[in-house]
Amino acid sequence: DVKVTQSSRYLVKRTGEKVFLECVQDMDHENMFWYRQDPGLGLRLIYFSYDVKMKEKGDIPEGYSVSREKKERFSLILESASTNQTSMYLCASRGMVGNQPQHFGDGTRLSIL
Amino acid sequence: AQSVTQPDIHITVSEGASLELRCNYSYGATPYLFWYVQSPGQGLQLLLKYFSGDTLVQGIKGFEAEFKRSQSSFNLRKPSVHWSDAAEYFCALSLRGYQKVTFGIGTKLQVIP
Predict the structure, then answer these.
(1) Could you read off the pLDDT of A80-103 as tens digits, one per residue?
(2) Least Cα separation, residue B3 to chain A (angstroms)
(3) Measuring CA to CA, how many Å separate B18 from each of A73, B30, B60, B63, B85?
(4) What burial letters (b/e) apply to A16-30, b meaning 16+ CB within 10 Å?
(5) CB-CB: which of A45, A101, A105 is closest to B43?
(6) Which tens digits make up the pLDDT trace of A13-64?
(7) Side-chain half-sphere of A9: how many Cα atoms within 13 Å?
């Protein structure tokens, strides 16, 4: 069974801090994704990566960056956290074949004070 | 650009009643279609998927969905709802040859005794 593990379930940080959210998958998937989930807005794609060191902007990349140095690990970075980045963050992975579904982690609920 | 519409944000059903959650998509060709469920505080779990062939798809937890090309719809159904089905449900699509997945905004299901 595919396992996607997000390093923290809950995280509280202060405005202006640099924040790292980590995600690890164990199925050798080429594609990894970061979403944020807000009530009434569904899931919005921040960034995704289709290979090591490769990334592509999603729908809302502003204020975020990502890093993928190893195939199994995909990090989301908030360069200077702001209160409007308080949200639920979900990581997902997916194999290369197009008809495969995404597999999700349990999410990180991030609060910026 | 492709899109997914879930017209019902909240639905309330009685335990034991039947359920149908609506999903419409906008895309010129037939995409890959998915239904996910999210229990409170959890990530998304795949219920079922449609790629081609038989338009009635069976999933986990007793759910099924029917693809109707003429209506650009992929509605989720369950004949008898259980209290444990209370959750948020997301319809999603991906295009053949692309890795991004587009989600609807979700339908929150409440089950009353």
Answers:
(1) 999 999 999 999 999 877 678 899
(2) 12
(3) 41, 28, 16, 11, 12
(4) eeebebbbbbeeebb
(5) A105
(6) 999 999 999 999 999 999 999 999 998 888 999 999 999 989 999 999 999 9
(7) 5
User: Can you read off the two tokens belonging to residue B106?
Assistant: 């979700």
CB-nearest partner of B94 from A4, A98, A107: A98
Measured between CA atoms, the residue of chain B closest to residue A96 is B99
Tens digit of pLDDT for each residue in A67-81? 999 999 999 999 999
**Chain-chain contact of B43 with A104 (C-beta, under 8 angstroms):** yes
pLDDT of B17-62, one tens digit each? 999 999 999 987 888 999 999 998 888 999 999 988 889 999 999 9
3-state secondary structure of B70: helix
User: How many residue contacts between A and B have a Cβ separation below 8 Å?
Assistant: 58
CB pair distance less than 8 Å for A90 and B43: yes
